[in-house]
Structure formats: C-alpha cells, structure tokens
Amino acid sequence: IWKNWEEGKMRMITEGIRGVVAMPLVERRHRQERLVRYLMDSLRTHNTYAFGYFFCEFLNVCNVVSVEMCQ
Fold this sequence. Notes:
It is built from four helices and no strands. The chain has helices at 2-6, 9-13, 25-41, 47-70. The mean pLDDT is 87.
C-alpha cells in the first residue's frame, strides 16, 4: 500500500543527497539548502502524505499484534 501511495516522493526530494560521500562540501551545502527551502515553502501542504504514512504504520502495528495473538 505504502509504495503505491508514496510514489517515490522521498526519492525525488532527496535526490543527489542520499549516500553521496565524495561530493564537494559547497555542492552538498547548496543541495541541503535547496531541500530546506523546499520543506519550508511546502510546510503544511503534505497532510495527505503524512496521513497515508501514519495509516500504513498503524496497519503495520495491527499486523504485528494479530500475528502475535495467533501464535
């Protein structure tokens, strides 16, 4: 459910920042600033995304509890 709901949004947002060690510090700071700017500009506009994430986490908890009860 989450993979269909999320649609690669985190990968798009963090593209070029994740796992890059050999990037020059200036370039890394520029990308970080761009990410922070995006997050600040879009604050409170991703409520549906957050709801979907918490709903999927709730389903995960229900799954774990139900499996434990069945054993």
